[in-house]
Amino acid sequence: GQQVMQIPQYQHVQEGEDFTTYCNSSTTLSNIQWYKQRPGGHPVFLIQLVKSGEVKKQKRLTFQFGEAKKNSSLHITATQTTDVGTYFCAGPLSNFGNEKLTFGTGTRLTIIP
Amino acid sequence: DAGITQSPRYKITETGRQVTLMCHQTWSHSYMFWYRQDLGHGLRLIYYSAAADITDKGEVSDGYVVSRSKTENFPLTLESATRSQTSVYFCASSVVGTDFEAFFGQGTRLTVV
Prior knowledge:
Chain A is an all-beta fold. In chain A, about 0% of the residues lie in helices and about 60% in strands.
């Protein structure tokens, strides 16, 4: 079945360093979403990418959607302690509807002060 | 987000018992979902509903039952709880016409002993 893989599973960085997580799908995605989950919290929507090669920025966060629409990345510049959490990518479960999201396994980011 | 609430937040139950997790949303979102979150597996879709009286299985639906008689409620029932169903359960909702951004509840931590 369709799978969404995410790497790395864990990432420890010094505060101020950059961080990147990668998301890969076994099939072409119509769109991809990114979520952040703080420790003990619930996933919160960050952004959606729809177009091939699309790049979107939110302050220190840069999101990219691959040309083939099978991979995506999230890059955080100069991490801060507020960036701690698990970052998930999510794509539609099937080509017949965008509403059923398959989530990646997530990348847990910890910051060393 | 106050718009989608789950209850209870914590539950301990015994193997073989039936348990129901409640989910209520105040936005009148058409789509509602149940996910379970386990370490190393990310978020896995259990069931989803496109509207009242319309439900469909996700990737890990065995042992679970859902109903949706009203748009705002989407209870999840474990018919005969097993230890493998110990998990954190998240309810989410989204609405057609947007980016299908999913709004998550606070989660229910279920322990089956």
